[in-house]
Amino acid sequence: MSRWEPNSRGRLEQAALQLYSERGFEQTTVADIAMRAGLTERTFFRHFADKREVLFGGESSLQEISMNAIACAPDPLAPIDAVAVALDAWGVLIQDRRELVRQRRAVIAANAELQARELLKRASLASAIADALRRRGVADPAASLTAEAGIAVFKVAFERWMNEPGQQDLPQLIRETLDQLKAVTAGGCKVQRELVP
Amino acid sequence: MSRWEPNSRGRLEQAALQLYSERGFEQTTVADIAMRAGLTERTFFRHFADKREVLFGGESSLQEISMNAIACAPDPLAPIDAVAVALDAWGVLIQDRRELVRQRRAVIAANAELQARELLKRASLASAIADALRRRGVADPAASLTAEAGIAVFKVAFERWMNEPGQQDLPQLIRETLDQLKAVTAGGCKVQRELVP
């Protein structure tokens, strides 16, 4: 006797993050999550394959957003700025979920396996961005390099957004961080072989 | 009755990588490795905490090299070029071990847990580089951003070095890749908010 429950996915996600924060990820079961959300385990499994997917289910939306943003970015945009359009869209999406994102980050930081999974997620987002750039006609190694640079920008901007209490505007921070990347890479000169220890 | 064995660490490493390649990482035991190297398990454990450390024991030398290279880089060098000195030193070290490095990479690619461990290693090298830059007086977020950019350059250069059969000079490839990063980040313009989907 299953019936439609309004926003069951969101309720399950909130319940899961609360429980992971209170008890730890390992100590929480799908039954606990369903009960906290006032839903059934069957409803849980209609939305998530397992309790880990509650934390990583957003990966495919970030991937899809990136593909679309990069494919649709206007032609004259340099590759790094096409990537910036994708990161901006991530920023908008993520900043609307600040409290959930903060809980998620703390849960992941407390568990080595989840940390590793998070790094794999970033690596696979970098691959997806590089693919999208290749489809725009960007050659390698520029495509992978630009993708990696974009992920680096996102990572640093995201940490600032989380760590600096007054920071609210993640897309703005991402733009600033990209400008800083341009500044730190522009500052250098050619490296002399003789400097190597 | 343990006795000194010449280059036992190198012999164990070679034996381990051979076995991991032949049978897979999971299917290899420390006893197998010691036997293949003609040494005892006791000797193995004098050099490595476990069979995984054969693959990741180099992390601390890369970390130490980076700290030294960045601390000793001449003052006028921009942060990104101080990082380049460290990456150049990595390149020299790694290219001397091309065959072992190639085997190691294939073993890691075949095992999800090892892939995750490899990503953690890169993340912790990025942190170490950022720390070394902070000690040079580089402020955040420039320190973390420069470190992440350096890791991105290394990753892309390393993949090229492994995938392009004619490529021998890893330090040269690292320098080229850094120049490409400078080019891809310099190419852009400011992102317009209106472009966001």
Structure, described:
2 copies of one chain form a homodimer. By secondary structure, chain A is an all-alpha fold. Chain A has 2 domains: 8-54, Arc Repressor Mutant, subunit A (Orthogonal Bundle), CATH 1.10.10; 58-184, Orthogonal Bundle (Tetracycline Repressor, domain 2), CATH 1.10.357. Chain A contains 10 helices and no strands. Chain A has helices spanning 8-23, 30-37, 41-47, 53-56, 59-72, 79-95, 98-109, 112-135, 142-163, 170-186. At the A-B interface, α5, α6, α8, α9 and α10 of A face α5, α6, α8, α9 and α10 of B.
Present the secondary structure layout.
The structure is a homodimer of 197-residue chains.
Chain A: H1 8-23, H2 30-37, H3 41-47, H4 53-56, H5 59-72, H6 79-95, H7 98-109, H8 112-135, H9 142-163, H10 170-186
Oligomer: homodimer
Helix content of chain A: over 70%
Shape of chain A: elongated
How widely separated are the two ends of chain A? 71 Å
Features:
homodimer; 2 domains; disordered C terminus; 197 residues; elongated; Tetracycline Repressor, domain 2; Arc Repressor Mutant, subunit A; mainly alpha
Question: In summary, what is this structure?
Answer:
Two copies of one chain form a homodimer. With 197 residues, the first copy, chain A, is mostly helical.
